[in-house]
Structure formats: C-alpha cells, structure tokens
Give the backbone structure.
Amino acid sequence: MFRTRSFPLRVIPAALALSILPATPPAMAAKPAPPLDPSAPMVAVAETTSQVWTALAVLPDGRMILDSPAWTGAPGPTLTLRDTTGTTRPFPDAAWTDPATAPEHRLVSAESLQLADDGTLWVLDSGLDAADHPVAPPKLVQIDTRSATVTRTWPIDPAVLRPGSHVAGVRVGRGHAFILDSGVPGLIVLDLDHGPQRRLMDHHPSLTAQHPIIAGGHVVRDGSGRAAIVNATEIEISPDGQWLYYQPPCGPLYRIGTDLLTDPTITSFELDDSPTLWYKTPPLGGMTVARDGTLYFDDIATGSIFRFTAGRVYQRIVVDPRLRWPATPAITAAGQLYIPTAQLDLTPRFNQGQMTVQWPLTIYRIDTAALPAPVR
C-alpha cells in the first residue's frame, strides 16, 4: 500500500507543491451539511494485539477477512480470517501464507482487497517484504470465499512495471482490474478475460503526491525522519462500474470514466486530460463506497469519518480520538460500515523504524442505515 519517497520538508512546502499542479478544471462545488450532532455511535467489534490491519472484507455471515501488509512491520500472515467467535486463521489457508510455498502460490503482502457480491475476493499482492525487497512477482489473486480456495491468479506483466514499482490498490469492474502503482505513479489496466495489460497515465499529477501527509496535526515522516511522500494508494469504483475514484493519501480525490481506461483507441494525450478533480479531500487513510454511491472517507488529520453523497453533499458523521489513523473501511449491503484503526504513524515505516503502536488496535462498526440523511 505504501512506498514512500523521502524529501526534506523545506524542498516541497505546501504552497510550492500546489503551484506545480497543472491547470485542472475545478470540481463542481460540493455542498456541506452540518456535522452529525451527536456523532454516529461506534461499536467495537474486533481487536488485535499483534497485527496492523489496514483493510478488511466482511462476509455475509459476519466473518471478517483482515489484511496486514508486510510493510506494516507486524508479524503473522498477510491475510487472516476471523470467525464470529474471534478465532483467527491464515486465509485462504496456511499454505498460501507459508514462506516455504512457491512464490506463484503464496501471498507475500496483500495490499488491497475487494469483495464482490458473488463472494469473490480480489486480492492484490505486491510480492514485497517489509523492506520493499521483491520476494515474489506481484499478482492479482481471485479467491472464492465460500470455499476458501484460490480460483485464478494473474501475474502482473513486468512490461507494465518500472524499477521501484509498488502495486498498492485495486478495484475490479466491467471485466477489468484497475491497479495503482504507488512506487512509480501509474495506473495498470488488466483485461481479466483476454489477458492484455496496459500501463496508463505515467507520472500523471493526479496520481502523484504533491505534498506531505498531515496526521494528528503533524507531518508524517518516513523511517529516516524526512517528510513521507506517498503516491496514489486509495482507489474505489462506483457501484455501476462507470467511475474510478483515486488519490494519494494526502489528497485530493480524482475521478475518471472506466470506459476511457478500457478503450485501447484512446490516446495518452486524451487520457491525460480526462481525470476530473472530484473533491478536495483531507488526508485519507482509506475510502469505500455504498450501494447508493455514497463515498465514506477516513480522515486521518482529525480522526473523523466523512460521507460524500452521489449528489455531492458532504458531512462529517463522527469524530473520535479513538480513530487514530483509521485505515481502509468496508461497508456491507445493509449499510454496516467497518473501520479498522491502524496507527500507521506509529509503525516502522512512518516512525523512524520503530514499532510503537498502542495496542490493542480496534475495528469499529457504524450503522449508516440508521443515520439521518444529510440536510443542507
């Protein structure tokens, strides 16, 4: 999920970073709604004293598939299944997370998850260890969650990667996988049925972090103490598969039509002009989309959760000091929003090589179906 580029803060002050952005058509103005008062109630549903969960998928029966990428510095399998009693085990099985398993049949570092309505879990494996050393080629893995079996894998073609590539986020729709390269900013489009893979929008400003990340009032720094610059890792797709949303953790949020990304006749010049600045988000730990198209954002700057409706109304639904670096959330068909707290600023990658996470880390649940609609 995170490969950092290190720059002394004085090299890229925020004003300069913004000034180097190309002229972009402004997004249609969003409409604010008053924050929920009181905040939406949060219920603790799971916790860990050993792993840093950065994403999750919630199965219809209440079990959770939990993602702990290698770069967090936490031990244990990169994917874990937690049943309704709290018991955990490697997912899909022990062999797929065993270092002795052949690389093509092993998950090294799950960077991104997407659960489809038919029970398919899409997993993006960077193949990189905690120090970003390649252990296995990156790949997209399709898992049947009903049988806990891997049904197919797609190795990422070396031709669409670059030295320093770190695949970080994936969403699947309309027969294609859309994969973010955060190490070297770019977007990889993989045709699931026919196999071709294309690399698009190399170093496009919408994919490239233009300033550091602010969390809890402080600049997030890398292992050497310099400002951490992280390219696009956050990605989501609209329920109808028509729009792809993405951004670096520092923001802002862009949107582009998937029909453009899957059309091989579209030129690179046309693609470069196609992303739309969709919302000037705060620094995000992750985002997810509900069935009605409402986006939910985890704001790491203030420990808040925002919603952004399809009608472009935004509203803060909760602010809570327990939400220290909330990571990628998940929402069920019934509107249950699950938020893992990750404290990533206290993990080695962003804490001068030290793990000082304040255990336990907790997953919270919010019943968004019970919330009043935002009123402007």
About this structure: The CA atoms of residues 56 and 66 lie 5 Å apart.
